From TrEMBL:
The chain crosses the membrane at residues 28-50, 70-89, 166-190, 202-222, 234-258, 278-295, 316-336, 342-365, 377-399, 411-431. GO terms for biological process: potassium ion transport. NCBIfam families: PRK05277.1 (NF003640). The keyword Ion transport applies. GO terms for molecular function: monoatomic cation transmembrane transporter activity; voltage-gated chloride channel activity. This is H(+)/Cl(-) exchange transporter ClcA. Coiled coil: none annotated. Keywords: Chloride, Ion transport, Membrane, Transmembrane, Transmembrane helix, Transport. GO terms for cellular component: plasma membrane. It is a multi-pass membrane protein. Residues 444-527 form the RCK C-terminal domain. It is found in: Membrane. It holds the Pfam family Voltage_CLC.
């Protein structure tokens, strides 16, 4: 009888824990949906404002071309005012400068502070002014950062847990990407692959809830069509794979060139710290206005240019000029120090590269004629992968943005080649490079991290195949002394770790760490749980 009572009590405790965990998970999904709602509203509003800004800028350019002699001065002069205002506003929240994605990544490793109440208004207004005035910047970086800020706002209202706050920040960021491009699955994959880099059920469930909710709002207001509306693409025979090999190599090399040129342009901008931010932004927008008078396609994010390429409306002879000017204008724009992302400009550059290779292939091989738009779609994904080094996000993003699923094999093949080439050239992924710069600048400027004394944080990691922790016993695991491994999740089972517990591939580790040591312990965990072929 006593044994039966103990068994019943054990089952009762187990069932109670499961119920509490299920209840918490449902409440977290609801908070994720609230974060997605907030991010979706902000993201859609930002898209609408930028669309209106593009229309105003195009009308202004048409009017300027009717003025003989001095018409080319109209856009630079008005743009200079908008750029100066954008730079002045950014000085109130310096973390909003540039893409904002590296700042979100720094927040998620507890290295920077996020103040949602100042990030959202400054990023929104300054970003709209800078991009609307003609700088070659995209909407996705601002919507990701504003989405992360929206996630934090929800957390501040409904949660007291720091770990849950970080989860909601990541979920809001993914929802921002979903709202920016009508790409909910890409938003989820972006959170898992780029921001959190683990498949925790809370991160996955929250990201799904947030991204789906944000996309529902986006489709309700903007419609259900893909971001790029393209014509029916021609099928790609297997004989085109050698041409895609060339495209993969080209995008890999030029992707590394993009990252290194961007780093160089930011180094030059750092040497101009004597110039106030508003003046640098004003000069950059003025130069963009001059270029835009003669080549208006390169202004702004480049959505219309990308659609023209995908429809085959851009002549092959002008593609190298458009690529070179758009490339250099993107470098100038990002180094101006105002809000704006690089997703959309780099997708435009990838489309130009793909179209150029496709058109050349059509001239050399008659059977490949008319395949330029198909090459352009694949070029977008390959260039994204070479620069960002997040292949799943790039592939899913392009499929959702174009609504094209029929070229999976050449798409995967080209992205694989681009990834291999970029990795072989030894260049850091763009957001990792920007994150390192951001943290180094914050340290040199004396920007202190948020106070974390006596606060604890939950960190999760997954044991990868080939990692040093794979097959290792817990007592032999080399980790800092101030972290505590509390659970190992293996499939549907949760294991309380003991010294002799052996870790297996795919194990999810949950570790409690002091918040002020989270970054260092994250790095230590990564060394033992991730496969590193160089070791």
């Amino acid at each position: 009888m006593r044994d039966e009572a103990l068994l019943l009590k054990k089952h009762s405790i187990h069932d109670s824990l499961l119920l509490r965990r299920y209840d918490y998970f449902l409440r977290f999904l609801l908070k994720g949906a609230l974060a997605g709602t907030s991010a979706g509203v902000v993201g859609v509003a930002f898209r609408l404002v930028l669309t209106e800004g593009d229309l105003w800028r195009n009308e202004l350019l048409r009017w300027a071309h009717t003025i003989p002699g001095w018409g080319w001065l109209v856009l630079p002069c008005l743009g200079a005012l908008a750029g100066a205002l954008a730079g002045w506003l950014t000085s109130f929240a310096p973390e909003t400068a540039g893409s904002g994605i590296p700042h979100v990544e720094a927040v998620l490793i507890s290295q920077r502070e996020l103040l949602w109440w100042r990030v959202i208004p400054v990023k929104f207004i300054a970003g709209a002014l800078a991009i609307g005035a003609g700088l070659s910047l995209g909407r996705e970086g601002p919507t990701v950062q504003m989405g992360a800020a929206a996630g934090q706002a929800v957390s501040k209202s409904f949660s007291r847990s720091k770990t849950e706050e970080l989860h909601l920040i990541a979920c809001g960021a993914g929802a921002g990407l979903a709202a920016a491009f009508n790409a909910p699955l890409a938003g989820v994959v972006f959170v898992l692959e780029e921001l959190r880099r683990n498949f925790s059920p809370y991160v996955l469930g929250g990201a799904l809830a947030a991204s789906v909710t944000a996309d529902l709002i986006s489709q309700r207001i903007l419609g259900p069509l893909p971001t790029f509306r393209i014509k029916e693409l021609l099928p790609l025979p297997l004989a085109t794979l050698p041409a895609f090999l060339v495209l993969g190599i080209l995008t890999g090399v030029l992707g590394v060139a993009f990252n290194r040129t961007l780093q160089g342009s930011l180094d030059v901008a750092d040497r101009l710290k004597g110039l106030p931010r508003w003046l640098r932004a004003s000069l950059a927008v003025s130069l963009a206005g001059v270029l835009g008078y003669f080549l208006p396609q390169v202004l702004g994010g480049g959505h219309q240019l990308a659609e023209d390429v995908l429809w085959g409306r851009v002549q092959m002879g002008i593609i190298p000029l458009l690529f070179a000017v758009k490339f250099l204008l993107t470098m100038l724009s990002y180094s101006a120090g105002v809000p704006g992302g690089i997703f959309l400009p780099l997708l435009v550059l990838g489309a130009l590269l793909g179209s150029f290779v496709g058109e050349i292939s059509g001239l050399l091989i008659p059977g490949f004629q008319g395949l330029g738009p198909s090459f352009a779609v694949i070029g977008m994904a390959a260039y994204f992968v070479a620069i960002v080094r997040s292949p799943l996000t790039g592939i899913v993003l392009i499929i959702e943005m174009t609504g094209n699923y029929q070229h999976i094999l050449p798409l995967l093949f080209t992205c694989m080649i681009a990834y291999i080439v970029a990795e072989a050239l030894g260049c850091l992924p763009v957001y990792e490079m920007l994150l390192e710069r951001d943290l180094a600048r914050a340290k040199s400027d004396g920007i202190s991290k948020p106070s974390t004394k006596d606060k604890m944080l939950i960190v999760e990691a997954v044991v990868e195949s080939g990692a040093s922790a794979c097959g290792c016993r817990v007592k032999d695991l080399v980790l800092p002394v101030d972290c505590l491994l509390v659970t190992i999740r293996r499939g549907a089972r949760e294991i309380i770790p003991r010294g002799n517990t052996r870790l297996l591939e795919g194990d999810h580790l949950t570790v409690i760490v002091p918040e002020n040591r989270a970054a260092a312990i994250n790095e230590a965990l990564a060394k033992v749980t991730r496969c590193n072929p160089k070791v």
